[in-house]
TrEMBL record:
This is Class I SAM-dependent methyltransferase. The keyword Disulfide bond does not apply. GO terms for biological process: methylation. SUPFAM superfamilies: S-adenosyl-L-methionine-dependent methyltransferases (SSF53335). Keywords: Methyltransferase, S-adenosyl-L-methionine, Transferase.
Length: 229
């Protein structure tokens, strides 16, 4: 029964996403998912209510961090990754396209030091350009179709400060052929775009999703060279 509910939810989300794409509003479906959930986290399939384990692993192995470094969490969802960074002394800004998700973060973490705001990955505020020492991008690029992918990747890269770090976690695919989605895993050439935008890969880890052993993901640490702008 539980597996059937998960499958029904997956099909419903795919329908919402494809409907939004047809209306040329590729991010609109996130708010629909959060609003329809009505406070039930089981209706948000990506909400684990704990920091992503591969973010937590990276943070554990790279401590300590200078206090007050500026961090940005892209598509923060219900806020667990942002809170993990704040606990380590980062000055965290976390955004999501969904007003419901951001309000939910405030309810979950009423005393948080994180600056939770509603923002659009395809319309990044200009003051964020090259502004963050640490940027966490987890599974947002893969959630958006290929016709906006170059724009999305450019937005992600644009917020990383000189000498700053981007930690990226996303599904990857083996070919350049367009996959069915969502999600739409990233290809090698799409990842290469980040390098073309001045981000140098430092460390890469390949892992498989726990429930789907055939779904390959990567965690890549990038660094922006100081001379790049």
């Amino acid at each position: 029964m539980l597996e059937q509910q998960k499958e029904n939810l997956r099909f419903h989300i795919q329908h919402l996403a494809n409907e939004a794409i047809q209306k040329s509003e590729p991010l609109a479906w996130f708010e629909v998912v959060y609003a329809e959930a009505q406070g039930d986290t089981t209706q948000i399939p990506w909400a684990k209510l704990t920091p992503h384990p591969y973010l937590q692993d990276w943070l554990t192995n790279h401590q300590p961090f200078p206090s007050g470094q500026k961090a940005l969490v892209i598509g923060c969802g219900l806020g667990d990754d942002a809170e993990a960074l704040a606990k380590l002394g980062f000055a965290v800004t976390a955004f999501d396209i969904s007003p419901t998700a951001i309000a939910w973060c405030g309810e979950r973490f009423p005393n948080s030091n994180v600056n939770y705001i509603v923002a659009d990955l395809l319309a990044i505020p200009p003051q964020w350009h090259l502004a963050f020492d640490f940027v966490f991008e987890c599974r947002n690029i893969q959630a958006l179709p290929l016709n906006v992918r170059a724009e999305v990747i450019t937005s992600v890269a644009s917020v990383v400060a000189p000498d700053g770090t981007l930690l990226l976690i996303n599904r990857v695919r083996e070919t350049e052929a367009e996959p069915s989605g969502p999600p739409w895993p990233l290809s090698e050439s799409e990842l290469k775009q980040l390098e073309n935008l001045g981000l140098q890969p430092i460390e890469q880890l390949v892992f498989l999703e726990s429930e789907q052993v055939d779904v390959k993901q990567v965690r890549i640490e990038y660094r922006r060279c100081h001379m790049q702008s």
